[in-house]
Design a protein that fits this description.
Length: 732
């Protein structure tokens, strides 16, 4: 292959792509835009070597450009790569993809749980570890991170999101991109332990009506630009290699056929130079949406819209060449899509070395370092909602001598993983019950366990225990894709069991595992402590017990607003003001049958010590365009235990050309405080932090008064104000 110009690693990528395009036939180009699923390493590699039409890996005598779910084992992937590189005419390697959503062999908390840490560095490290493990099995492309803004917890895919807030989702999504790809800007893509990341689902998927997966979306341009497109713009800025279009229609146009938002906004306005891939069979589903008569027309619509790769439908493979020959599509459109695919392969270093050492997996998967990281992440995902003094647990002389662990999830293993975990193994998981035994049993303390299958037996055990830890919540099958619910209450029967336990145990600790924010108001007076831990991953037991024991201070914060009831949703902190502001203490509310306020606001999380916030101080009463305003407050730990406090900066633009949210998160700082310690927490604010986007996506920074607060959550903090002076990027 030395005579092939595109194999010269010392030449610029663009030159190598151009040389390769010039050597390819139209059919070979189309093959690069076709993704197949579950290829058989023996059958399909043999078919490819023979130049025949295999089960789906071979198209017109040339291999498909990329595959997904190829067994996730290096030897099988190597067989496919060997056939592609060594027996095909041009030696183009495959791009092998898999859903590596929140871990591989080492399963980390679901993204919503990771978001509770409010810690971009933690998210980045988890993604980096997942990339190391998955790449050791031959995977080089993941369909993550999901950066959809999620306001409706009935939607099952809220579990895959970073929550409700655009700022937090943008920062955590960008951090995940950097972790998967080995650094900012995709600079580490060529490293063999990196994955091409995929920001999904473009765009507005979290707005599906009623929380019903795949349902239609209706949204205004201002909301689209200022909430739902922001995390995608951040992912593009971070160098994300690929973007996936969503299943739904947006204002009547399926996203896989939405030329204005895909080819127009994403590729042209944002300058995205990577690959756009459809979601599973989304090209074919254009027929079911009623915008294409058949898959031939669907293929034309999708490519015209800017979708480069057809995931599994086969519409591109079957029809693109004919559409070009008939003049419906131009050769230039096909060449642009192929160039994007080839560029990603070159940036990944696949042309230099498409193979994976099968021995590498044993050295990088489920290592002690990765387990320690998973444990840290599980602790970070643990949100303490209420504590009446029972926590942290103290055992032995002067403390509890008998702990009883119960509940349907007390001994759960696979259920700790949550949704979208293809490669985690249940036997690797540490249960909550096992972690309690490991930490507390011995020295005169007894730990007993049951799964509350027979409540009468559990009540007998609870009555004689000093502390009861009840592990309840959702099975992962209730969350994730196509797993929406009409009620965000606890699953049937669990509340009644907890109420019965509370009647016999005054020291009941309730641990709730879930893939979404649940309506937990009825637990506010059940038991002595309440924690929300999401689905915490392979080290969930250890991470949760680290917090219960006080070995790690509670640091989880709600990345979503916690409703009181399902009837309140969608509910989010950054809503717009109304002409008749709600007075929570007033006689008239929005609902006749319930309180209007959430159970807990976005950003809330309790600790084991009391923290106070001083008044907000400003370096100046005004902020000039191009300048910086320092915003500070003194945060003090006035309790007896150390704390990890997540301070949050919120602003409100009081008067603008369009109504602005009552609460916008623009910064986060974590401070570790010893008992009695106080620190001044300072944020730097500039005009860009205050800007919004108009209906055309243009930044607007309008002069006027802003209120600002440093707070422990979206519902707290003291407020001051400043003036943004004229001279910024004002809209015309």
């Amino acid at each position: 292959m030395s005579d092939r110009q595109w194999t010269a690693a010392d030449r610029p990528v663009a030159e190598r792509v151009s040389a390769l395009l010039g050597a390819m036939t139209l059919e070979e180009k189309v093959g690069q835009l076709h993704q197949v699923v579950n290829p058989d390493p023996v059958r399909d590699a043999t078919a490819l070597a023979a130049g025949s039409f295999g089960s789906c890996i071979v198209a017109s005598g040339e291999h498909a450009g990329n595959v997904r779910d190829a067994g996730a084992q290096a030897h099988g992937v190597n067989a496919l790569q060997r056939a592609a590189v060594e027996t095909s005419r041009l030696g183009i390697p495959l791009l092998v993809a898999r859903d590596v959503i929140h871990g591989h062999r080492t399963v980390f908390p679901i993204p919503l749980g990771q978001a509770a840490s409010f810690d971009a560095d933690l998210v980045r490290r988890c993604a980096r570890a997942a990339a190391r493990e998955a790449s050791a099995d031959g995977v080089r492309w993941t369909f993550a991170p999901m950066v959809d803004i999620a306001h409706d917890p009935r939607w099952g895919r809220v579990a895959e999101s970073w929550g409700e807030d655009p700022w937090l989702s943008a920062h955590l999504g960008a951090a995940a991109v950097e972790g998967f790809q080995g650094g900012p800007g995709g600079a580490g893509l060529a490293e063999p332990d990196s994955l091409a990341a995929c920001a999904k689902h473009y765009v507005g998927y979290g707005l599906v009506q009623g929380g019903r997966d795949y349902a239609e979306v209706d949204v205004g341009l201002l909301t689209l630009h200022n909430r739902h497109l922001r995390p995608f713009a951040a992912a593009v800025d971070a160098g994300v290699a690929t973007v996936m279009t969503a299943f739904h229609t947006l204002d009547g146009t399926p996203m896989t056929a939405h030329a204005g938002l895909v080819r127009g906004h994403l590729k042209a306005d944002l300058g995205f130079a990577g690959v756009v891939v459809s979601d599973w069979d989304a090209v074919g589903e254009l027929v079911l949406h009623g915008v294409a008569a058949d898959t031939r027309e669907a293929a034309a619509l999708a490519l015209l819209a800017g979708v480069d790769v057809d995931m599994v439908t086969g519409a591109y493979r079957a029809h693109l060449a004919g559409l070009v020959q008939d003049g419906r599509l131009t050769q230039g459109l096909v060449d642009d899509a192929v160039a994007r695919v080839l560029t990603v392969k070159l940036r990944l270093g696949l042309f230099e070395d498409p193979y994976t050492d099968p021995a590498r997996a044993a050295t990088v998967q489920l290592t002690p370092d990765h387990r320690a990281l998973a444990r840290e992440a599980a602790a970070g995902a643990t949100v303490l909602l209420r504590n009446d003094g029972v926590l942290p647990l103290v055992v032995g002389p002067g403390g509890a001598r008998h702990l009883h662990v119960t509940g349907p999830l007390a001994t759960a293993r696979a259920e700790l993983f949550g949704t979208w975990t293809l490669d985690g193994r249940p036997e690797d998981a540490v249960t909550i019950a096992d972690a309690v035994r490991e930490r507390f049993a011995g020295d005169g303390t007894t730990v007993t366990v049951d799964d509350c299958r027979f409540l009468d037996e559990t009540l007998v055990a609870a009555r004689v225990a000093d502390v009861v830890v009840a592990c309840v919540g959702e099975h992962p099958m209730r969350s994730g894709e196509a797993n929406s619910v009409t009620s965000v209450d606890l699953p049937p029967g669990q509340l009644e069991a907890l109420e019965a336990l509370a009647r016999v145990s005054r020291r009941l600790v309730v641990v709730v595992l879930s893939g979404r924010p649940l309506a937990l108001e009825r637990l506010e007076h059940v038991g002595a402590a309440l924690l929300l831990v999401f689905h915490p991953g392979v080290e969930g037991g250890h991470g949760i017990v680290d917090v219960l024991a006080g070995d790690v201070p509670p640091r989880g914060r709600l990345p979503v607003t916690l409703p009181r009831s399902t009837g309140q949703v969608p509910l989010h902190h950054d809503h717009l003001p109304t002409g008749r502001p709600l007075d929570p203490a007033g006689p008239v509310g929005r609902y006749r049958d319930h309180r209007d306020t959430p159970l807990h606001p976005f950003g809330f999380g309790a600790g084991y010590s009391e923290v106070t916030y001083g008044p907000v101080g400003l370096s100046s009463p005004t902020l000039a365009p191009g300048g910086t305003l320092q915003v500070s407050a003194r945060v003090a730990n006035v309790g007896a235990r150390p704390v990890a406090e997540t301070t949050q900066l919120y602003v409100h633009d009081l008067v603008a050309r369009v109504s602005r949210p009552v609460s916008e998160l623009v910064g986060v700082r974590r401070v570790e405080l010893a008992p009695g310690e106080a620190q001044d927490v300072t944020f730097d604010l500039d005009a860009g932090d205050l800007a919004y986007l108009d209906a055309h996506g243009r930044p607007c920074s309008e002069p006027g008064t802003f209120t600002i607060r440093i707070a422990p959550h979206a519902g707290g903090g003291t407020t001051t104000s400043f003036e943004l002076l004229a001279g910024g990027a004002e809209s015309t």
